[in-house]
Automatic annotation (TrEMBL):
InterPro entries: AB_hydrolase_fold, CarbesteraseB, Carboxylesterase_B_AS, Carboxylesterase_B_CS, Type-B_Carboxylest/Lipase. It comes from Akanthomyces muscarius (Entomopathogenic fungus). This is Carboxylic ester hydrolase. The lineage of its organism: Eukaryota, Fungi, Dikarya, Ascomycota, Pezizomycotina. Keywords: Hydrolase, Signal. GO terms for molecular function: hydrolase activity. The keyword Zinc does not apply.
Amino acid sequence: MVVPKKLWPLWMASAAAAAASPSVTVDAGTILGGQCGSGNSVFYKAIPYADPPVRGLRFEAPKAYGKYPGGRLNATAPAPACIQFGDTFKALGKTSEDCLYLDIWTPADATEDSKLPVKVFVFGGSNIEGGISDTLYDGCNTADDGAILVSINYRLGPLGFMALESAGIHGNQGIQDLLLGLKWVKNSISAFGGDSDKIVLFGQSAGATDAYIISALPDAPSLINSAIAESVALPSLASNSSVQTTSVSYAKSLKCDVRDKKCLQGKSTIDLRSVYFSDEYLKTGLGAADVTIPSVNSHKFWPYVDGTVIPEAPSAVGAKVPAIFGYNQREGMMDTLTKYNSTEAAASATPAAYTKFLKDNFGPAAAIIEKYYDLSLFQSTPLPVIAAISTVATDAEYKCPAYASAAQTVRNNVPAWVYEFTHNSTCVWLDTMPQAFIDVFGAAHTAELPYVFGNLHFDFADKNSSCTGTSDEWSLSKEMMGLWTAMAEKGNPSTNDIHWPEFRATTNGSDVQGMVFGNFSRPGAIDFSVSHKLTNWSANVSSLGACRSDRREIVLYAGDIGVVATGNGQAAGNVSDCTVLVQDIGMNGNSFSAIKRNKRSKSTK
């Protein structure tokens, strides 16, 4: 080809850019990526790992992707998020049912011989929202740490977790998406410079639950060498009966016969979303626990033990690979914000509001909970009622599950570690979190994410903000990224500079050794004493009064009082004829009082 002289500069610039563009070749073809701004890392975005789950593939297990058209893939544009069934994450950009993609970030100098550790991330969002293209999860800085980062999109809401036996829809599609994505990583990551034997699966919130589910599968060791659950919210999964009931209600609200899969596959995504939020669906078949206004949370689709994809609940078997379980000091503040969304509103909260909160969410167990969380314990805080509600929510949703998950894992002679993130961030990391709340209460839900990803510039939360992390915060972030990388490298988070002691259950749950992320990373004691006493709490504060477990009964140990809740079948989700027995073990072991509970429903982050 002859290039006219006047076009030489343009042609040379184009040729230079093409030469500088990173590329890798996998079985499907050649992938063309881009460079991060620092120049130290490169990215490959929107790599398809499955065929588009549309039309006849909607509600089905994912089908592995074939070859790239023309043998090449331009992987420089962000992937669309899967169809959203929530509205917390409003800045995700494009959404599509064709969404089964993954992103990869690597050091710029990585080669097939590098054998770098690999960190695979599962985003949170209650399994109804979120996506890999959220700038909070940008991996340019994590690749600077000498590791490879992968993020996987998975189907959400009914598209990802609907199970309707009468229509031949078997559920857990979102978990199957993640498993297929992991298999893609296992088979292809060496082309990017990764070591397929050094893969840690880590997730946050619902993503932590999904990561824990996968880590507890029998074949987990063939896919990953370790797992990290940040803010895991899981003592139990949905029951088959509750999933079927939810799906029947949804199908009827879509005006589909419950046996007609083609009708469900033919509905537009607009219809799927609008019906999900419709009064008709919210009021059909299910009711929210102890509230007068039906809540979409009581109708959420969720992973369940189907005997095939998920043979057993992770709470019953623990992780099959070394695992970290952690929580943030004020996780429950995020839930509290849904009602008290300003410091002025929070200041107006009365003791009566706390009593109502306990009764609404714990039912007959409210008095037991209040025994350990008496409002007088919080009088020294600026907003005692909010502090009390937030603390109960934190312990119930996240702290107790972290303790229980670690304890169950080590029972199987698999090592586990725990952490508490307590750092008060200088800058707001979510546009839904007022700085005033952070200043007063500290590390809320999601607070650790900027540090895990090394994204402390914070303009992703507020485009008009110039706030950035302090030098100490950048150091904390570097330490955390290094510990996460060490977990991928060797299945143990300790580094040459920081020793992270393994989890060992203590007699009463106090002084459990773990890692505390405050102004810096330090090994230290974490007080799980209440978690020890209140084992097997329900996973979500909006349904803590529910009779829920992945077994037929749960026991909440509360000092000298035990609460045994039994239901008709696996009592996760909607349970009718649920009976709660309160036993005063310490005073007289045969004294029982029975309280009838009906139609408790669940909502899990």
